[in-house]
């Protein structure tokens, strides 16, 4: 079974970022993909801040990334970069932990001016972790997602179309990767 691991850098559960991750998680699970969901809001802060590699939770994070065929990295943008909470998770991933994996960024920020945070902040770290196949991903502006009274979210149609496009790209690349021989995989 193809496995996808989400790494979510929002320190709170109520973030609009979860509208984006839920969009992907629901559709990928329905399509039969295995899903692991790592959220900074659920992890012990002390284990992350100390990079405690003896922590069972940190070992589970590392295992989830190792077993993944694709990693969806989601974060709010704070001060023109991804969250510090996301950085603490990325810091416990081994040096080549993203090698051979598809990486899809999902970012959300207050204005479109933060769009380049993926290129200037995230991509160098992903490359340092061995990631070479970073998909286009999606950047959303907070105002494109409305929080509903029932606790859910409403996503503007334009953003929904971009999410569908990114999902199609991810599924297509996963299919292509699955068809590669081990030697071809090493070349990617």
UniProtKB/TrEMBL annotation:
Its EC top class is oxidoreductase
- UniProt keyword annotation of Coiled coil present: yes
Q: Which UniProt keywords apply?
A: Coiled coil, Flavoprotein, FMN, Oxidoreductase
**Residues annotated as domain NADPH-dependent FMN reductase-like:** 2-143
Q: What's one Pfam family here?
A: FMN_red
Could you list the residue ranges forming a coiled coil in this record?
Answer: 153-180
What InterPro entries does the record tag this protein with?
Flavoprotein-like_sf (IPR029039), FMN_Rdtase-like_dom (IPR005025), NAD(P)H-dep_FMN_reductase (IPR051814), NADPH-dep_FMN_reduc_SsuE (IPR020048)
The keyword Coiled coil is annotated on this UniProt entry: yes
What GO annotations for molecular function exist for this entry? FMN reductase (NADPH) activity
Looking at the UniProt entry, the stretches that span the membrane are: none
Gene Ontology biological process terms from the UniProt entry: alkanesulfonate catabolic process
Per its UniProt entry, which superkingdom is the organism in?
A: Bacteria
Alphabetical list of PANTHER family matching this protein: FMN REDUCTASE (NADPH) (PTHR43408)
Q: What is this protein called?
A: FMN reductase
Which species is this UniProt entry from? Paenibacillus rhizosphaerae
């Amino acid at each position: 079974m193809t496995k996808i691991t989400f790494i979510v850098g929002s320190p709170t559960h109520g973030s609009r970022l979860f509208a984006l991750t839920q969009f992907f998680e629901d559709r990928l699970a329905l399509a039969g993909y295995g899903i692991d969901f790592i959220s900074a809001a659920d992890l012990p802060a002390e284990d992350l801040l100390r990079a405690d590699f003896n922590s069972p939770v940190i070992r589970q994070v590392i295992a989830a990334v190792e077993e993944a065929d694709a990693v969806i990295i989601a974060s709010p943008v704070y001060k023109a970069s991804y969250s510090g909470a996301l950085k603490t998770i990325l810091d416990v991933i081994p040096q080549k932990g993203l090698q051979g994996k598809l990486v899809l960024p999902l970012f959300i920020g207050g204005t479109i001016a933060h769009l380049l945070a993926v290129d200037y902040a995230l991509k160098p770290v992903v490359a340092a972790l061995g990631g070479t196949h970073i998909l286009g991903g999606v950047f959303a502006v907070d105002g494109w997602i409305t929080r509903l009274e029932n606790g859910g979210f409403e996503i503007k149609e334009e953003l929904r179309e971009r999410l569908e496009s990114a999902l199609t790209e991810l599924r297509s690349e996963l299919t292509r990767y699955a068809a590669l021989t081990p030697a071809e995989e090493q070349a990617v």
